[in-house]
Structures are given as structure tokens and as C-alpha cells.
Amino acid sequence: xxxxxxxxxxxxxxxxxxxxxxxxxxxxxxxxxxxxxxxxxxxxxxxxxxxxxxxxxxxxxxxxxxxxxxxxxxxxxxxxxxxxxxxxxxxxxxxxxxxxxxxxxxxxxxxxxxxxxxxxxxxxxxxxxxxxxxxxxxxxxxxxxxxxxxxxxxxxxxxxxxxxxxxxxxxxxxxxxxxxxxxxxxxxxxxxxxxxxxxxxxxxxxxxxxxxxxxxxxxxxxxxxxxxxxxxxxxxxxxxxxxxxxxxxxxxxxxxxxxxxxxxxxxxxxxxxxxxxxxxxxxxxxxxxxxxxxxxxxxxxxxxxxxxxxxxxxxxxxxxxxxxxxxxxxxxxxxxxxxxxxxxxxxxxxxxxxxxxxxxxxxxxxxxxxxx
Amino acid sequence: xxxxxxxxxxxxxxxxxxxxxxxxxxxxxxxxxxxxxxxxxxxxxxxxxxxxxxxxxxxxxxxxxxxxxxxxxxxxxxxxxxxxxxxxxxxxxxxxxxxx
Lengths: 372, 100
Fold this sequence. Notes:
Chain A is an alpha+beta fold.
């Protein structure tokens, strides 16, 4: 049996970015991808490369996101050079819309504490209605203002995934689609990854199977207590440009469609859509941009976010099974550049990026505070 | 390019007159806009928003969005999903739709 340097379980955005980073550095890498029956969060996401507001309780998440946002242009360029796939990445800054003065005040307080917690690295500005209108001339009257951050941007997540896959293959990676991995175990110095009708052997294994990590991680001494969280998205017909920068739940794609979304629903593994939720998303979009009132929705879908108990990523090397790693997060687009350029080198043996030191599973253990 | 089939048992259909970019087009009651345009020899009814390349009806079942036209001033109408009506003003959809 051929032995790879690395086997990456999961061909979504997290697995593909890591696999691409490893293959580009010259390692022999196989990606095992389940197929269309998997939950495939990477095919259903919104496409923001987003920083503002992230990491309110954990500033290192903000720093990790900023690192990725900074590396995004070079990732996008190198994928273009390698594969001719354009991710449509743009970083014009982004806004979070507020509908009342109270929302503005709360937002300002949150982002001020985030700026402080990151030593000023994260910066932002509050825009009143008039200032926002200068940026987005067609903004609705009922929008009070917005927070703006230069760190934010967006990309086409499907082209990103395609670019990562193509780049991975271009760098000599082996893509093994087909079926679900059900068993991972260590044998001697290497790992055996088993799935229906096939065994793959690798010196090291990276579990990047999204929600599937829940069952795989314990097999190599890791813990991935993940839960699904559903987001529903609506997409309109293509139309003339009217929104030149992304917002938290509304963006216009390179082709002219408007994507709207950002529901957060605890509905188990149900990937469907519900009319009241879609209706709420659409109404909010029309408040933000009244010109959308009579446009057509051409498609709606639901997708499941991969959520840890606190919403932050999980990256960990196994102590009991050296050479096994787990990586999961719900921001596969934003973090793609950090995963390819900083996480992959760590997995290959470099030192741990300091921002991600807190992202191990021990933080989910029962915590006891002993009163002084 | 397309020829209307005459089925032996089909009842005769009423003639419907529509206009495509100002030109009179003779269709039959029950035709979709896309079918009427194809049978009138129209190959391209829109240009794409991204590259501006010309496109015409393709899937005829509401999926591909290649048959977009403006119908009585409403942009981005799927021609294969709407039946012709007498006097309908159909226009080519040039690029991305306008708004309000």
C-alpha cells in the first residue's frame, strides 16, 4: 500500500486549504472526500472574508481572522496563477448595518472593546446615515448607520473551493472522492484510514471533515464536540451594481446577483428552508436596499454551520496519537488563507501560530472557578 | 432553424401577434415567449451581464435562464415560462437588469 505523507479527511474548504498548503510545500498528500451525500457546508456558505465583530470574547480569533484577511490577496493571486480560477476576492471594507441609535451604541461598544483587546490592530469606524449613504447611495432611509471596517471583504466561495482543488492537483496532490471515512487508526508509525472498499495509509492524518469530525476525532485521542447551526440564504436574479461593498448579511456577487442571509437556527441536521425565515431575511434586505423590492429570488437553500460550543475554531494535535490533527471552524472562507499558509506549515512541523494556541478542545471541559 | 411540427390530431390554434424589439412576430395561442421567438427565427434574445455575449433560449423548462427578455417593461422575465398574449411587447434583455 502506498504511504502518503498526509491524508486529509474532508475535501471542503478547510480540508482543501490545508491540503493545498501541504501539497504546495512539496508533501505527498491525499484528500479523502465523502461526496454529495455529505453535509457540504462549503457549497452552501455566503462568501464573506470577514473580520469585524469576530472574537469579542476571544481576541486571538480576531487576530487569526486578520492574519487570514491579510494573506487572502496572495492566496487569490497564486490560485489564479496556478489554476486560472478567479476567486473574485475583493476587500473594499465591509459594513454592519444598524437600524437604531441603540444598535449603533451597542455595536460601537463591542467593537471598541475588540479594538482595545487586539492592541489597536483591529480598527473600525462608525458611520451615521449620511456617511453610509455616501458609501452606498441606495441605502434605505430606515438604516440608522453602520460600523465600517477596512478588514472586511468577500469572495466567491465556490470558485475558492474549485481553485483550491485545482491548485492542490496542480501541486501533485491526490484527490480521492467516493465514500465516508468510518475508521482511522494508528499502525506503527503511520495511520490507516478506512472507508468502504478502501484503505489509505499516511504518516500523518488531518481530520477536516466538518461535522463528521465528531465521530472521527475520538478514534485518535481528540475531541470535537460540534453541533450544526443552520443558515438560510436567498439569491436574486442578476442586476446592475447597487451594492459595492459587502455587509454582514447582504452582498452583491461579481455576476450581479444579491445574496442575502444570516439566519442562525438550531434545527439539528435539517438542511431545508422555512418560509418565515426566508421572508424575514428578504424583508430585512429590502429595508437595507429598497431597490430590491420587486426583484426575483431565483434560489434559496439552507446549509449547516460547523459550530463548536463557543463558536470559535478547533485546531489540535493529538498527544496520544502523534501525527493526528483535527481542524474545524465555521469560517472556511475567511480563514482559507490562514489555513493554507499558516496552519498547514504547523501541521507539517513548524511552530504553532501564536494566535491559535487557545483553540484546543480543553476549553470545552467543565470549568471551575474557585472563589478567592 | 426551428420548424413548427404539425400534429395530425392537434386542434388549430388561434394566431397571436406579439412584438420583439418592435418587430411583429406571429405566434400561436399556447406558445411560450421562448418558443414563439425560436419559431420566428430569433436566435439571441439577451446579452449576458458579465461578458456581454449573446444568448438565446436553451433548456425551455425554466432552469437555465438563457431566455431572459423584457416583457411589457418587466426586466429579466424567463421567456420559456410565460405564454404569449396578443400585443405583448417583448424586448431583448441587455446585460444586467435595471432596477425601479
